[in-house]
From TrEMBL:
Signal peptide bounds: none
Transmembrane regions listed in the UniProt entry: none
Name of the protein in question: VOC domain-containing protein
Domain VOC: 11-136
Lineage top rank: taxon: Bacteria
PROSITE patterns recorded: VOC (PS51819)
Organism of provenance: Bradyrhizobium sacchari
Length: 151
């Protein structure tokens, strides 16, 4: 007897960040201008429309428990993951960095030229999740806010 495996269509639909303080994180991402959806969830979980995959915020300890991982110790250092805010111009990168800082982000790296012909800078949200503001060759941001990659 042969079992035929159905191959699912790969997709990235939600990026969930574990956060220490739901109120503070909701206020931060609201202030960045992301559009919160399903507000009926209150502070239990927060969902944001990003123009692509959904960004979700969930209490760190509950997220760890849900994934069957220990809540402690929490990594204090870089976790090997960044979130990107792709921009259309170098000026937009600098504007995103300044805007994020004005809303409580911490600057990790000021905008600067990259070795691949782009321009980027980094900031961290209140829980230390790292964001890159970037403009890069071959990656365009359309009017639909979605990233379009060159062939």
């Amino acid at each position: 007897m042969s079992l035929e495996l159905t191959v699912p269509v790969p997709r990235l639909t939600v990026i969930t960040l574990g956060v220490s303080d739901m109120c503070a994180s909701i206020a931060f991402y609201d202030a960045l201008g992301f559009s919160r959806r399903l507000k009926a969830t209150g502070e239990a979980v927060a969902f944001y429309d990003t123009g692509g995959p959904v960004l979700a915020l969930f209490p760190w300890d509950q997220l760890a428990a849900d994934a069957c991982l220990p809540d402690d110790p929490r990594p204090a250092a870089f976790r090997g993951t960044t979130l990107a805010w792709n921009c259309r111009t170098r000026e937009e990168v600098d504007a995103v960095l300044a805007f994020a800082l004005s809303k409580g982000a911490r600057l990790l790296k000021a905008g600067c030229a990259t070795d691949y012909g782009g321009y980027c800078g980094y900031f961290a949200d209140p829980d230390g999740h790292v964001w890159e503001a970037v403009v890069a060759p071959g990656i365009e941001v359309g009017e639909d806010r979605r990233v379009h990659l060159a062939e």
